Amino acid sequence: MSFYCSSPISRILLFSLILLAMGSCNQTANQSATKAFPADPLERLMEGNKRFAHMTAVHPDVDLERLKLVAEGQHPFAIIVCCSDSRVSPEIIFDQGIGDLFIIRTAGNIIGNVEFGSIEYAVEHLHTKLIMVMGHENCGAVKDFVKGGNPHGHIKDIIDSLMQEIEIKAVPFSDPNRLDDCIKANIEHGVKQISNHSEIVHEKLLKKEIRVVGARYDLNDLKVEIIHH
User: Fold this and answer.
1) pLDDT tens string 168-212
2) What is the phi/psi pair of residue 135, to 5°?
């Protein structure tokens, strides 16, 4: 079937109708994908990562309707504490959209008082039910710690913080997988730190109103693995 429009105005109208139809289809697909998401926050994250790793991401919650909705208030379903590394973007890795995730990022996913305050805000005021501490393969901060040396400026504060982590101290210098095991130890430290050093989080954990997990993202296979829960 073919269409022929003799006048420029008719051609413009036809083109506009086609664009409207395409936009409607895309919006319907986006809404259908959103409705299909699991209710459990961790399961939702892991299903999103599976889509990302298999290159079948649906890029939800980025349409105009979503933008208008979140302008009125945010209701993120998960808190992600992760590294500032430019290769580790939670919204992309977990195939989530605007307003879905409350993200705290520092080099080496180090948690200090300000980071604790951010976590507690999301838990207490936004009623977020899941906290994930996510480290990643080949983390530059942990790698610098493992290599040793004398870092300059405030980079030294990052290394000094890692040096104080009991879990990292327990990793033997002779460990052939020392870098990756230190990365995992750093994740474990973050999970314990959040679970035990925040009264707000600890109380909700006792009531089973929140969950804290640790995860590792692989830069090569693009998959997130839960290593502490």
Assistant:
1) 999 999 999 999 999 999 999 999 999 999 999 999 999 999 999
2) -90, 180
- Angle between the 199-206 and 113-125 helix axes, to the nearest 10 degrees? 40
Q: How confident is the model at residue 1 (pLDDT cuts 50, 70, 90)?
A: very low
Confidence (pLDDT) at 17:
53
* Mean pLDDT score of the chain: 89
**Per-residue model confidence (pLDDT) at position 126:** 97
Range 51-57 contact pairs with CB under 8 angstroms and sequence separation of 24 or more: 51/95, 52/92, 52/93, 52/94, 52/95, 52/222, 53/221, 53/222, 53/223, 57/92, 57/95
Q: Which distant-in-sequence residues (6+ apart) come within 8 Å of 34 by Cβ?
A: 60, 61
Give the integer Cα–Cα distance in Å for 182 and 151: 18
Cα–Cα dist 80/83, whole Å: 10
C-alpha to C-alpha distances, 220 to 53, 57, 60, 68, nearest whole angstrom: 10, 17, 24, 36
Residue pair 101/225 in contact by the 8 Å Cβ criterion? no
How confident is the model at residue 20, as a pLDDT? Answer: 52
Check if the beta carbon of residue 109 is closer than 8 Å to that of residue 86: no
Q: Report which residue type is found at 201.
A: V
